[in-house]
Specification:
272 residues; 0% strand; 73% helix; extended; mainly alpha
């Protein structure tokens, strides 16, 4: 077995690196004499780092930036190596164990590639995948599958996934859900006048859940739709702010009527 010093020299002498070298580098960072910051980290302390790095990968994909995508994928891989190293230090599993498990899972869940099952379409593949996954996890009921969707997902994404798996209780069409959205909005209005923060939060939650169902039945990705709506709001707000500045006015001191005029003008600006 190589000593710390020998591993250090091996890493420093290399001109190009692979996944095995990344595992070694993370090990050196966390060994005594390594990086004080890295040595202090735990699964929970870098939990949000993994979330942030994942979103940065999504940003690179959405921006169609291959150079950034390569960099951000590396950052995600570093997070995997860090968590795997922490587990290895506790004698529970190693990076190789993680790689082994995902390889076994992929072979098992692709019997149409590595076995004799026939699946000629993507729909057949996904159907087989769900059956195999349910068998692996011993999920016998729909409720089992619903509870298996992590609560840590973004709430809108989780709502959409829950609705999809519980579709046997679904609305007949998007128009029916639109009626439900209107009903939930009415209940929100009632809760606003009731003076109960708990009741209001519950009704707003029902409204958002219904909106997620409406998006799903209308064939719209709710996460993407909300992202685009937020982008649109920012663009229009920017136009309003610029118009106010050009008129020599303080946006925060303007009347609602004045701001409404600027907002309506901003809505008329063509999209890029």
């Amino acid at each position: 077995m190589m000593t710390r010093e020998e591993k250090m020299q091996m890493i420093l002498q290399k001109k190009a690196y692979d996944a095995r070298d990344l595992v070694t580098i993370v090990e050196l960072l966390r060994l005594p004499g390594g990086c004080p910051w890295d040595m202090e980290q735990t699964h929970k302390s870098i939990r949000n780092d993994l979330i942030e790095e994942t979103y940065e990968v999504i940003e690179a994909i959405d921006n169609e930036d291959p150079a950034l995508l390569r960099e951000e994928l590396g950052d995600v891989l570093l997070q995997v190596a860090m968590h795997a190293r922490m587990e290895e230090e506790q004698g529970r599993c190693s990076f190789d164990d993680v790689a082994n498990d995902i390889c076994q899972k992929m072979i098992h869940r692709h019997p149409h590639v590595f076995g004799d099952v026939v699946a000629k379409t993507s729909d057949q593949v996904l159907s087989n995948w769900e059956v195999i996954k349910s068998e692996e996890k011993s999920r016998e009921t729909v409720t089992d599958k619903l509870r298996a969707i992590p609560r840590q997902y973004p709430a809108l994404l989780r709502a959409a996934k829950v609705g999809k798996k519980a579709r046997m209780m679904d609305f007949p069409d998007a128009a029916a859900v639109a009626d439900k959205v209107a009903e939930e909005l009415s209940e929100v209005r009632e809760a606003l006048g009731a003076g109960s923060p708990e009741a209001l939060a519950e009704e707003i939650g029902d409204l958002l859940l219904s909106a997620a169902s409406l998006a799903r039945l209308a064939g719209v990705d709710p996460e993407l739709a909300l992202t685009r709506a937020t982008d649109k709001f920012i663009d229009r707000f920017s136009a309003v702010e610029q118009a106010a500045a050009a008129a020599g006015k303080d946006l925060t001191a303007m009347s609602d009527a004045e701001k409404d005029v600027l907002w309506e003008n901003a809505k008329k600006i063509p999209k890029n």
